[in-house]
Amino acid sequence: MQAIEFNSSANQGIIKIPENYKDWYGSTIQVILLRPESATNSARETTTHPSRPIGLAQNKFQVSAHFFDELPEKLLEDFEGKN
Q: Which residues sit opposite 10 in a β-bridge?
């Protein structure tokens, strides 16, 4: 596999391959996208969903041992839309 590396920006889902790689135009390629860490952090900060603290319900209830039992076949079929 041959690989090249260049910097670009994605504009409306389109990434421009630089002119000096025009022999790659029209080829089937594999794309790996990397974003600088600062861009990743700013994207997380603009999330509209506030993060929730972990463990708010700790020691408030107990899960029955039956919770981990296999579900009845009929229930699974209904869930999967087989009936």
A: 15
